[in-house]
Design goal:
Length: 251
Amino acid sequence: QYATDVVAAKALAMLRSAAANPGGQPFYLQVAPPAPHHSMHYDFTASGAFVSRHWYPPVPAARHWEELSGAALPRPPSFNDPWVSGKPAWLRALDPLTAANVTFLEEIHRLRLRCMRAVDEMVEALVSELDSLGLSDSTFILFTSDNGYHEGVHRMGSGKTTAFEEDLRVPMMMAGPGLAAGSKVVTTTQHIDIAPTVLALADLPLSLRQLDGVPLPLAAVSDGTLPPSYVYGRPDQGPLRNQCVAYCWSQ
C-alpha cells in the first residue's frame, strides 16, 4: 500500500531527526498508517464542489499481493446470525448473507490482511531504527487501533460503527523501560487514557482540562523500575476504573 510506505518513510526520517537533536530532547512520534482502510475516489465539479464518493476494496502493496491467499474469514457464532429475534429493527431487516456475499467478504478479509503486511514492515523498521540509534532502553512504544471491524457477523457486510464486540475491541500493546515482558493489564482501559499516560510517563502535569481519561495502570505490571512518580496501578491507589460508561441517546 503506497500510502503506508510513504508514512513509514516519513516516520523514519522524523525519528532520525529527533534522535539527532544535539540537546537530547525527548520526543513524541505518533504514526497513523491508512492500512487496512478501503480505497476511496472522490468526484468534484470543475469549480471544486464535492459531487460523490466511491468506495473500492483495500489495495495492498504490490509485493504483498499474492500473500495470505489461504487465510480464512473468521466465523464466530454470530457470523451470518440465523437468530435475530429481539435484535434492533435495522438488524432484523437484514437478509442472511448469500454464498456470493461470503465469497466477497473472504476476499476483502485477505486484502485487508495483505495491506497490514506493509504495517508489519513499518513497525519492524521503526523498532530496528530505535535499536540502531541506541534508544530502545529509553523509549516507550504503544501499538493500537482506532476501531474494530466486522465482516459477516450479525448478517452485516464489511464495516464498523456498531456497538458489537467486533467493532469495539482493539489491540493495545505496549513496551518500554519498567514494563514486565508478557504482563497484562486486566482492568478496563480506553483510548482516552493514552494522552494522560504519555504525560505521566514524562512526569508532566495532568492538569489540562480537556483530559477525560486517566493514566494506564502500568504500575501493576511494572518490573520495579518505572519512575517512582508513576503510581497509577499501585495496589494502595485502588483501581483507576472498573467499568465503562455508555452514553445513549435517541434521535
